[in-house]
Design goal:
The chain is α/β, with parallel strands linked by helices. It is built from 5 helices and 5 strands. Strand 1, helix 1 and strand 2 form a beta-alpha-beta unit. The structure holds nicotinamide-adenine-dinucleotide (NAD). The site of nicotinamide-adenine-dinucleotide has 19 residues, from helix 1 and helix 5.
């Protein structure tokens, strides 16, 4: 993988306080990307996001992907060239217990993020990975 590609690129990551997101941020920050994360707060103290030394090296926004207004504000501020969508309720067993929350986060959260792109303040050419 050519990490030079990411140098100076504006990358917007949802779920940056999670397991995969925090690792991904660490890799992108190392590669010289300008990273903005958008997620709920890290669930534990200590947590991987803090332990990975990311605070101060990227912009970290605490917010909910179900909240379109908040997501859109962070997205527009970041002006991303690349979008990586990892925010999710990822536990299958929990989805049985709380299907509404799971649907709202995993499905409507994705719709909200896509809408941020399609109603963007300016035309951007982004890539979507979920
Ligand atoms: N861990 C794995 O082995 C694995 C395997 C395949 C796919 N995935 C997928 O990768 C993604 C990330 O998984 P993970 O293991 O890092 O999960 P995780 O639970 O560690 O992290 C989830 C992240 O999503 C954020 N989040 C959850 N609900 C949110 C909401 N309503 N609004 C904003 N942010 C919210 C959390 O704050 C956290 O940052 C998920 O889509 C998951 O299904 C994970």
């Amino acid at each position: 993988m050519d990490m030079e590609f990411y140098r100076g690129k504006r990358v917007f990551i949802t779920g940056h306080t999670g397991v995969k997101g925090a690792w991904l941020c660490r890799i992108l920050v190392n590669a010289g990307a300008i990273v903005t994360g958008y997620s709920l707060p890290a669930p534990t103290e200590p947590n991987l996001f803090a332990l990975a030394g990311l605070e101060g090296k990227m912009s970290s926004v605490v917010g909910d992907v179900r909240d379109f207004k908040s997501l859109k504000a962070a997205f527009d501020e970041a002006q991303p060239e690349i979008v990586l969508h990892l925010a999710a309720q990822p536990i299958v067993r929990d989805s049985y217990k709380d299907p509404r929350y799971t649907y709202e986060t995993n499905v409507m959260g994705t719709v909200n993020l896509l809408e941020c792109h399609f109603t963007g303040a300016r035309e951007v050419s982004g890539e979507y990975h979920h």
